[in-house]
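Onboarding guide, step 5: your first structure request.
Type a short instruction followed by the sequence, for example:

Predict the 3D structure of this protein.
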Amino acid sequence: MNTMKNILKLLEYGFTVLSLMLYTGGPLTVIVSGGVNEGEAEFYQGSDNTVIKLVFLLIYFITFLLLVARWKKVIYTLSKDKYILVMVCIAVISILWSYAPEATITRSLGICGTTSFGLYLATRYSLKEQISLLGWTFATVILLSLLFAVALPKYGIMGGIHTGALRGIYNHKNVLGKMMVISTTIFILQALNNTKNRLLIYLGLSFSVMLLLLSRSSSAMVNLPIIIGLIIIFHTWRWRYEVMIPALIAILTLIGSFYLWFNENSDVLFGAVGKDATLTGRTEIWAVVWNMIWKRPWLGYGYGAFWFGGDLSYEAWYAAGWRAPNSHNGMLDLWVNVGLLGVFIFVFSFLKTLVNAFICLRYRNKSQWFWPLIFIVYLILSNLTESALMLQNDIFWVLYVAVAYSVLIPTEESINTDKVIHFSKG
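The system replies with structure tokens like these:
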């Protein structure tokens, strides 16, 4: 009996790791595309994603069965925060006013399945277990990315306008860069609170940084030092009040000084990472999308309808002067998808999660409680110049849902929440 339980548990862990890897965007997308590169006509025409859709439908189905098996905890967890559920309902209902109903039907099914998987992570695994599973996921991503680069360079290394940049198991170097920022963070958190497998953890950390650099993703290279700095800064949140408050004031002063310096030297800094003041055309597409938003400000154009490839997309591409795959800003894409109503609901959800993440970090002394706050900050950073907010079959939405519910679920550590954890400066 115990043997059967262990086998089922192992199979469930395997399903979770495999699904997490697929939600990161690899390796099916780059394989199905035939390894096309940005700048090639095929890159913009898209490819037959039937296999990918079938794989994710299978993941949705298995996830549904696993949620049903723990339905009491699922209902309890959903009752603690209804904002995410309301957002998903708005996406589904937007079929009624969608500019492209066929796109909204397909993609709203995807966001339901993606949200369900995030809920499954939160209700099935503790935060420590989630980080462990993410560690195994990114270890697999690293191994496969190295294999693709060496044995299948057509798929693993970019050609075209980004010739020589590593993309691993993804269809673009920037995706690999984003994933390696998360991977580096996960391995750092494991190193802070793990006395076992330290060699494997440090290997994972080293290869994560190496792949990030080889990807030549400028946004990832900027975001990683910020995330590492925040891990250090957030330690002050656990200090005694008489030490914490002066430290936070000093940190905020330094951040303000850096912001002023950055504004004065932004052109030089952008040039150093190969960007211009328009962030490679992003500011132009932002202006175009902003104008389109005000034509349907309250409910948007329907979930997933704006960039579906119809008249709306072509109008935006023509006005911007280039074929953008999205708005390159998460909040703008959320707005065109579900309108100002959806944006307000997300902001409420985000602020609630942010406050809970701060509370958990303050009163729970394990390193895994850095993860909710770090991820939330990275979610903000990654959505400033890219779009990774409430997307179907996307790891960022999976992790946001998992984090939002995980900080609400009672743990053994939360029994003595009245006791403040004191950390000395030394």
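Each response can be followed by summary notes, for example: DSSP finds 18 helices and no strands in the chain.
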